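Task card 7
Instruction: Convert sequence to structure tokens.
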Amino acid sequence: MANRWLANYINASNGGFIYQDNVTRIAQETFSDRAGNCLSLVLLTAALAEVLDVNVEFQEVEVPPVWGKHGNFYLVNGHINLRLIPRETSDTYLVSKDAIQIDFLPERSMRGYATKRIDKTTVMAMFFNNIAAESLVDGKYNLAYAYIKQSLLLKPEFVSALNTLAILYRHKGLDSDAETVYKLALSQSSEDLTTLYNYAVLLSSQQRLDEWAEVHKTLELARIRNPYYYYDMAQQAYFDREYQTALTWYKRAVEKANYRHEFYFGLSQVYWATGDERKAQLNLEKALALTEDKMNKRRYQSKLHAMKNH
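Output:
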């Protein structure tokens, strides 16, 4: 089947293509260099899928923001992947109708995060915004502006491109223009963490401390409403063997989202580490009941069997 053949050809999980962060390439360059970031891989796979008559679904993965410093700029890394879907025709019988996800990251590491379907126009707006940010880091400001403009022509309400434009304005000393764009971006998405963070930097540089405090209040509220904030804190505490602290954070994550299997699995691990075998088993049973993924089910069933026979 064409979609499976293409997935095997891309072979991302086995080193077919090398992950290089902050390097966005067109499909031809990714094909030649066998390297690029997640968006580069998506563009290449989509181009090949079009030739092979394979349908694709683009997905934005709602991972927590990951900040990186490049030169004088702080950039936030998002994540995108796609699914290859076999195309049905009147004269074809499909042995398997399963879509295949293409991602540099293994599928098991993506299971805890929601995905959002996006269209091709959004993907292209992301592409132009990415290379605008990379041009900005390289000091190619006119080129960055041209790419931002192209991104916004495709998707005028694209918050990420508005944020990049505001950063460019700030870097060129156009603080008033930057603030106008930040406010426009926030009118589209009032709790966009990247925009709020950069707007706070602008307010701080102008000593507008009351307004800065209000923005930081919104940032903090957005952070503590996210159950994965507590989950990440719990995970770190668990790995540091600070089990009581981990227990507190896992419980808070469950309070925010009692439908996430990984939160209960985390609780199970902590209870087992502290010798409370009954609660460890109960929480693992909850994790098993909540997951729909076959691999997770096998994993939890195996651990549960080991607990009961301990």
